[in-house]
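Subject: Guanidinium exporter structure
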Amino acid sequence: MAWTALLFAGLLEIVWATAMKFSHGFTRPLATTLTITAMIASFTLLAVAMRSLPLGTAYTIWTGIGAIGAFMIGIGFLGEAITPMRLLAALLIVSGIVLMKLSSG
């Protein structure tokens, strides 16, 4: 259950980060509302996951899912650059997530 909550918390982090971009500094009400709602839901699910997962594991995986998801949204939908250095950085984040999961037992 904790891992499922953590996965959905990470996916909601992608939602709120993307919605925040579209809120244009919280000047667009719909995107701002989506940002705040997704943040609250994401933090709540993270807190649920942290009941049984170690802080370092839960937080690292949560931020990693959000970072990689935001990276993919940026490239796929917002026209952000795909460079070797950015791809290497993303690969290192994914590697860290996998190692953190494997080390949690």
